[in-house]
User: What shape does this take?
Amino acid sequence: MAAIVWLVAGILLAAAEMLTGDLTLLMLGAAALGTAGISSVAGTSLVVDAVIFAVLTLVMMLGVRPLLRRRFGNPPPIPTNVDALQGKSATVLEQVAEHSGLVKLGGEEWTARPMDENEVYEPGTKVFVMRIDGATAVVWKGP
Assistant: This one.
Protein backbone atom coordinates (compact mmCIF):
# COMPACT_ATOMS: atom_id res chain seq x y z
CA MET A 1 0.00 0.00 0.00
CA ALA A 2 2.81 2.43 0.85
CA ALA A 3 4.37 1.85 -2.57
CA ILE A 4 1.18 3.03 -4.27
CA VAL A 5 1.19 6.23 -2.18
CA TRP A 6 4.83 6.91 -3.17
CA LEU A 7 3.98 6.16 -6.81
CA VAL A 8 1.05 8.59 -6.85
CA ALA A 9 3.11 11.24 -5.05
CA GLY A 10 5.93 10.83 -7.58
CA ILE A 11 3.61 11.18 -10.56
CA LEU A 12 1.86 14.24 -9.07
CA LEU A 13 5.16 15.94 -8.24
CA ALA A 14 6.56 15.28 -11.71
CA ALA A 15 3.38 16.62 -13.28
CA ALA A 16 3.45 19.71 -11.06
CA GLU A 17 6.95 20.45 -12.37
CA MET A 18 5.35 21.66 -15.59
CA LEU A 19 3.98 24.64 -13.65
CA THR A 20 7.31 25.73 -12.16
CA GLY A 21 10.14 24.72 -14.51
CA ASP A 22 12.66 24.87 -11.66
CA LEU A 23 13.43 21.10 -11.67
CA THR A 24 12.85 20.91 -7.88
CA LEU A 25 9.51 19.12 -8.04
CA LEU A 26 10.86 16.82 -10.74
CA MET A 27 13.71 15.76 -8.44
CA LEU A 28 11.26 15.16 -5.59
CA GLY A 29 9.01 13.21 -7.95
CA ALA A 30 11.93 11.07 -9.11
CA ALA A 31 12.90 10.40 -5.49
CA ALA A 32 9.30 9.41 -4.70
CA LEU A 33 9.20 7.08 -7.71
CA GLY A 34 12.49 5.51 -6.64
CA THR A 35 11.12 5.06 -3.14
CA ALA A 36 7.98 3.45 -4.60
CA GLY A 37 10.10 0.98 -6.54
CA ILE A 38 12.26 0.03 -3.56
CA SER A 39 9.22 -0.17 -1.25
CA SER A 40 7.34 -2.48 -3.60
CA VAL A 41 10.30 -4.82 -4.10
CA ALA A 42 11.64 -4.89 -0.55
CA GLY A 43 8.39 -4.34 1.38
CA THR A 44 10.01 -1.79 3.69
CA SER A 45 8.32 0.05 6.55
CA LEU A 46 7.23 3.70 6.41
CA VAL A 47 10.27 4.82 8.44
CA VAL A 48 12.68 3.08 6.07
CA ASP A 49 10.74 4.53 3.12
CA ALA A 50 11.18 8.03 4.57
CA VAL A 51 14.94 7.49 4.92
CA ILE A 52 15.17 6.17 1.36
CA PHE A 53 13.18 9.16 0.11
CA ALA A 54 15.47 11.56 1.99
CA VAL A 55 18.63 9.95 0.60
CA LEU A 56 17.28 9.86 -2.95
CA THR A 57 16.16 13.48 -2.65
CA LEU A 58 19.64 14.56 -1.56
CA VAL A 59 21.24 12.66 -4.42
CA MET A 60 18.83 14.15 -6.95
CA MET A 61 19.02 17.73 -5.63
CA LEU A 62 22.79 17.85 -5.14
CA GLY A 63 23.90 15.59 -7.96
CA VAL A 64 21.42 15.49 -10.82
CA ARG A 65 19.66 18.88 -10.61
CA PRO A 66 22.83 21.02 -11.01
CA LEU A 67 23.79 19.01 -14.09
CA LEU A 68 20.34 19.44 -15.64
CA ARG A 69 20.26 23.17 -14.83
CA ARG A 70 23.64 23.69 -16.50
CA ARG A 71 22.51 21.77 -19.54
CA PHE A 72 18.97 23.07 -19.94
CA GLY A 73 18.70 26.08 -17.60
CA ASN A 74 19.91 29.00 -19.70
CA PRO A 75 19.12 29.45 -23.36
CA PRO A 76 22.07 30.33 -25.57
CA PRO A 77 22.55 34.06 -25.96
CA ILE A 78 21.14 35.54 -29.15
CA PRO A 79 23.39 38.19 -30.67
CA THR A 80 21.69 41.56 -31.13
CA ASN A 81 22.56 44.97 -32.56
CA VAL A 82 26.05 45.11 -34.08
CA ASP A 83 26.94 41.70 -32.63
CA ALA A 84 24.32 40.17 -34.93
CA LEU A 85 26.03 41.60 -38.02
CA GLN A 86 29.21 39.56 -37.69
CA GLY A 87 29.30 36.88 -40.39
CA LYS A 88 26.57 38.53 -42.51
CA SER A 89 27.14 39.17 -46.19
CA ALA A 90 27.24 42.66 -47.69
CA THR A 91 27.52 44.15 -51.17
CA VAL A 92 30.17 46.74 -51.98
CA LEU A 93 28.57 50.01 -53.16
CA GLU A 94 31.74 52.14 -53.39
CA GLN A 95 35.27 50.80 -53.64
CA VAL A 96 36.43 49.47 -50.28
CA ALA A 97 40.08 50.25 -49.64
CA GLU A 98 42.29 50.92 -46.63
CA HIS A 99 40.73 54.31 -45.75
CA SER A 100 37.40 54.42 -47.58
CA GLY A 101 34.49 52.35 -48.74
CA LEU A 102 30.76 51.80 -48.55
CA VAL A 103 28.78 48.56 -48.34
CA LYS A 104 25.09 47.68 -48.19
CA LEU A 105 24.52 45.56 -45.12
CA GLY A 106 21.06 44.42 -44.05
CA GLY A 107 19.36 47.15 -46.08
CA GLU A 108 21.57 49.89 -44.64
CA GLU A 109 24.68 51.61 -45.96
CA TRP A 110 27.79 51.20 -43.81
CA THR A 111 31.25 52.64 -44.13
CA ALA A 112 33.67 49.80 -44.61
CA ARG A 113 37.32 48.88 -44.76
CA PRO A 114 38.96 45.60 -45.70
CA MET A 115 40.24 43.23 -43.04
CA ASP A 116 43.53 43.03 -44.96
CA GLU A 117 44.72 46.61 -45.53
CA ASN A 118 46.32 45.62 -48.85
CA GLU A 119 43.06 44.40 -50.43
CA VAL A 120 40.66 46.50 -52.50
CA TYR A 121 37.08 45.45 -53.26
CA GLU A 122 35.27 46.86 -56.27
CA PRO A 123 31.54 47.78 -56.39
CA GLY A 124 29.26 44.78 -56.74
CA THR A 125 31.60 42.44 -54.85
CA LYS A 126 30.03 40.25 -52.18
CA VAL A 127 31.93 40.49 -48.88
CA PHE A 128 31.44 39.17 -45.35
CA VAL A 129 31.44 41.23 -42.17
CA MET A 130 34.21 40.05 -39.91
CA ARG A 131 33.53 42.60 -37.14
CA ILE A 132 32.14 46.05 -36.52
CA ASP A 133 34.72 48.65 -35.47
CA GLY A 134 32.78 51.68 -34.23
CA ALA A 135 30.60 52.65 -37.20
CA THR A 136 32.76 50.85 -39.75
CA ALA A 137 32.24 47.32 -41.01
CA VAL A 138 35.50 45.40 -41.35
CA VAL A 139 34.90 43.13 -44.33
CA TRP A 140 36.60 40.27 -46.12
CA LYS A 141 35.92 38.77 -49.53
CA GLY A 142 36.71 35.25 -48.40
CA PRO A 143 38.71 32.48 -50.00
Notes: The mean pLDDT is 90.
